[in-house]
Design a protein that fits this description.
Blueprint: H1 2-16, E1 28-36, E2 44-52, E3 58-64, E4 68-79, E5 82-87, E6 91-93, E7 98-101, E8 106-113, E9 120-127, E10 132-140
Parallel strand pairs: 1-10
Antiparallel strand pairs: 1-2, 2-7, 2-8, 3-6, 3-9, 4-5, 4-8, 9-10
Amino acid sequence: MKALFEITLAVQLAAFVPLPAAAQPAGLVVTDAWFRSLPGKLPAAGYFSLRSNSGLTLAVTGAESDGCGKLLLHKSSGNGGMSSMAMVDKVTVPPGGTVKFAPGGYHLMCVDPRLKTGSRMPVTLHLSDGSSVIAAFQVHGATGK
Protein backbone atom coordinates (compact mmCIF):
# COMPACT_ATOMS: atom_id res chain seq x y z
CA MET A 1 0.00 0.00 0.00
CA LYS A 2 2.85 2.36 0.87
CA ALA A 3 4.49 1.73 -2.55
CA LEU A 4 1.22 2.50 -4.34
CA PHE A 5 0.88 5.74 -2.36
CA GLU A 6 4.48 6.77 -3.22
CA ILE A 7 3.89 6.08 -6.94
CA THR A 8 0.62 8.03 -6.89
CA LEU A 9 2.28 10.94 -5.09
CA ALA A 10 5.20 10.92 -7.57
CA VAL A 11 2.79 11.02 -10.53
CA GLN A 12 0.81 13.87 -8.94
CA LEU A 13 3.98 15.87 -8.24
CA ALA A 14 5.26 15.29 -11.78
CA ALA A 15 2.09 16.92 -13.09
CA PHE A 16 3.11 20.14 -11.31
CA VAL A 17 6.72 20.24 -12.51
CA PRO A 18 6.92 22.88 -15.22
CA LEU A 19 8.16 21.69 -18.58
CA PRO A 20 10.90 23.71 -20.25
CA ALA A 21 9.47 26.41 -22.49
CA ALA A 22 10.45 26.66 -26.13
CA ALA A 23 13.71 28.52 -26.49
CA GLN A 24 13.12 32.24 -26.96
CA PRO A 25 16.01 34.36 -28.16
CA ALA A 26 16.94 37.10 -25.73
CA GLY A 27 16.07 40.55 -26.96
CA LEU A 28 14.37 39.73 -30.28
CA VAL A 29 11.20 41.79 -30.64
CA VAL A 30 8.44 41.66 -33.29
CA THR A 31 6.39 44.84 -33.76
CA ASP A 32 3.78 46.20 -36.19
CA ALA A 33 2.83 42.70 -37.42
CA TRP A 34 0.01 42.49 -39.98
CA PHE A 35 -1.25 40.61 -43.03
CA ARG A 36 -2.64 42.18 -46.20
CA SER A 37 -5.44 39.79 -47.16
CA LEU A 38 -6.54 39.84 -50.79
CA PRO A 39 -9.87 38.60 -52.22
CA GLY A 40 -10.47 34.98 -53.16
CA LYS A 41 -7.57 32.56 -53.16
CA LEU A 42 -4.92 35.21 -53.89
CA PRO A 43 -1.85 34.97 -51.62
CA ALA A 44 -1.65 37.32 -48.63
CA ALA A 45 1.48 39.18 -47.53
CA GLY A 46 2.77 39.51 -43.98
CA TYR A 47 4.67 42.57 -42.75
CA PHE A 48 6.41 43.40 -39.47
CA SER A 49 9.56 44.83 -37.91
CA LEU A 50 12.09 42.58 -36.21
CA ARG A 51 14.50 44.21 -33.76
CA SER A 52 17.45 42.63 -31.99
CA ASN A 53 18.24 44.12 -28.58
CA SER A 54 21.13 41.70 -28.10
CA GLY A 55 24.67 41.25 -29.32
CA LEU A 56 23.72 38.20 -31.37
CA THR A 57 23.30 37.88 -35.12
CA LEU A 58 20.20 35.83 -35.87
CA ALA A 59 18.39 34.95 -39.07
CA VAL A 60 14.76 34.17 -39.76
CA THR A 61 14.90 30.86 -41.63
CA GLY A 62 11.21 30.08 -41.96
CA ALA A 63 7.70 30.78 -40.74
CA GLU A 64 4.41 29.01 -40.20
CA SER A 65 0.83 29.84 -39.33
CA ASP A 66 -2.45 27.95 -39.23
CA GLY A 67 -3.84 30.81 -41.33
CA CYS A 68 -1.67 29.85 -44.31
CA GLY A 69 -1.28 26.63 -46.24
CA LYS A 70 2.37 27.66 -46.67
CA LEU A 71 4.21 30.68 -45.31
CA LEU A 72 7.33 31.63 -47.27
CA LEU A 73 10.07 34.25 -46.93
CA HIS A 74 10.06 36.54 -49.97
CA LYS A 75 11.71 39.73 -51.16
CA SER A 76 10.36 42.18 -53.72
CA SER A 77 12.75 44.38 -55.64
CA GLY A 78 12.61 46.85 -58.48
CA ASN A 79 15.08 47.30 -61.30
CA GLY A 80 14.66 49.74 -64.18
CA GLY A 81 10.93 50.14 -63.69
CA MET A 82 10.36 46.39 -63.45
CA SER A 83 9.52 44.74 -60.16
CA SER A 84 10.14 41.15 -59.24
CA MET A 85 9.69 38.88 -56.27
CA ALA A 86 11.85 35.96 -55.18
CA MET A 87 11.88 33.45 -52.36
CA VAL A 88 14.78 33.82 -49.89
CA ASP A 89 16.31 31.20 -47.58
CA LYS A 90 16.89 33.53 -44.64
CA VAL A 91 16.74 37.13 -43.48
CA THR A 92 19.57 38.18 -41.16
CA VAL A 93 19.02 40.51 -38.20
CA PRO A 94 22.31 42.13 -37.11
CA PRO A 95 23.15 42.66 -33.42
CA GLY A 96 21.26 45.70 -32.18
CA GLY A 97 19.67 46.13 -35.63
CA THR A 98 16.20 46.18 -37.13
CA VAL A 99 14.91 44.50 -40.27
CA LYS A 100 11.60 45.66 -41.70
CA PHE A 101 9.32 43.33 -43.62
CA ALA A 102 7.36 45.91 -45.63
CA PRO A 103 5.63 46.37 -48.99
CA GLY A 104 8.27 46.52 -51.73
CA GLY A 105 10.87 44.58 -49.71
CA TYR A 106 11.02 41.54 -47.45
CA HIS A 107 7.65 40.00 -46.63
CA LEU A 108 5.97 36.73 -45.71
CA MET A 109 4.01 35.16 -48.58
CA CYS A 110 0.91 33.39 -47.27
CA VAL A 111 -0.10 30.77 -49.85
CA ASP A 112 -3.62 29.28 -49.59
CA PRO A 113 -4.66 31.86 -46.98
CA ARG A 114 -7.37 31.17 -44.41
CA LEU A 115 -7.45 34.68 -42.98
CA LYS A 116 -10.40 36.77 -41.83
CA THR A 117 -10.13 40.55 -42.03
CA GLY A 118 -10.24 42.07 -38.55
CA SER A 119 -8.91 38.95 -36.82
CA ARG A 120 -5.49 38.25 -35.31
CA MET A 121 -3.46 35.28 -36.50
CA PRO A 122 -0.46 33.78 -34.66
CA VAL A 123 2.72 33.36 -36.73
CA THR A 124 5.80 31.40 -35.65
CA LEU A 125 9.13 32.68 -36.95
CA HIS A 126 11.88 30.06 -36.98
CA LEU A 127 15.40 31.30 -36.27
CA SER A 128 18.89 30.16 -37.21
CA ASP A 129 19.78 29.21 -33.62
CA GLY A 130 16.92 26.70 -33.46
CA SER A 131 14.64 28.95 -31.40
CA SER A 132 11.39 30.53 -32.50
CA VAL A 133 9.32 33.63 -31.85
CA ILE A 134 5.53 33.73 -31.95
CA ALA A 135 3.74 36.97 -32.81
CA ALA A 136 0.10 37.89 -33.40
CA PHE A 137 -0.51 39.42 -36.85
CA GLN A 138 -3.53 41.69 -37.34
CA VAL A 139 -5.37 40.82 -40.58
CA HIS A 140 -6.19 43.83 -42.79
CA GLY A 141 -7.97 43.96 -46.14
CA ALA A 142 -6.50 44.65 -49.57
CA THR A 143 -6.03 48.37 -48.85
CA GLY A 144 -4.00 47.60 -45.74
CA LYS A 145 -6.71 48.94 -43.43
